[in-house]
Design brief:
Elements (H helix, E strand, L loop, with lengths): L3 E10 L4 E8 L5 E8 L3 E8 L4 E8 L4 E5 L1 E4 L6 H13 L1 E12 L10 E10 L12 E6 L1 H9 L6 H14 L7
Parallel strand pairs: 4-9
Antiparallel strand pairs: 1-2, 2-3, 4-5, 4-7, 5-6, 5-10, 8-9
Length: 182
């Protein structure tokens, strides 16, 4: 059931993403069009202090015109090792330093139209200098929550970001019982 690409047109190339329109042929010979967003990939990190407090971030997301509570995340630089990116993003967005980093797997947030792959981590952290070095166009606030508070927020619709919900699921399956407050 694989689709064969007959032709591809690059219709947009921006700072972060590209948009391609693909002419594809299905196995039965039927032809169709696919619009695909090309993304360099990202990391997502659920950070936890030694006392069990989880560190998330709140930021305004223009695409949905609202503040979102999310796990720490960032885009991979070309050729960058995802673990290096994860450590960088935790420090930039929260001011915390990663002490231990555990891979939880990969996820594709919406493979129907975007090829973005997010590498997911759980990180044990400790306070750094507290400053964080956010990108010039980022306004990110670190938010400290208990496991119970995160679970309640998810159930109440206070956390609706898909990558954060997926990360929480992976964390729950991989790390349940590993931290004192899990």
């Amino acid at each position: 059931m694989k689709e064969k690409t007959i032709h591809s047109d690059l219709v947009f190339s921006g700072q972060l993403i590209r948009l391609e329109v693909l002419d594809v042929e299905l196995e039965d010979g039927t032809r169709s069009i696919r619009e695909v967003v090309r993304h360099p990939g990202a990391v997502a990190v659920l950070a936890c202090r030694d006392d069990g407090t989880l560190i998330l971030v709140r930021q305004y997301r223009k695409a949905v015109e609202q503040h979102m509570l999310e796990v720490i995340a960032g885009t991979l630089h070309k050729g960058e090792d995802p673990a290096v990116c994860a450590r960088r993003e935790v420090e930039e967005e929260t001011g915390y330093q990663v002490q231990e980093l555990k891979s939880l797997g990969d996820l594709y947030p919406s493979p129907g139209y975007v090829d973005e792959r997010i590498v997911v981590y759980f990180a044990m952290v400790e306070p750094g200098d507290g400053s964080g070095q956010q990108d010039h166009d980022e306004r990110v606030e670190a938010v400290e929550l208990s496991h119970e508070e995160v679970a309640k927020l998810i159930l109440a619709g206070g956390i609706t970001d898909a990558k954060s919900l997926a990360v929480w699921t992976l964390y729950s399956l991989h790390c349940k019982g590993e931290s004192a407050s899990a």
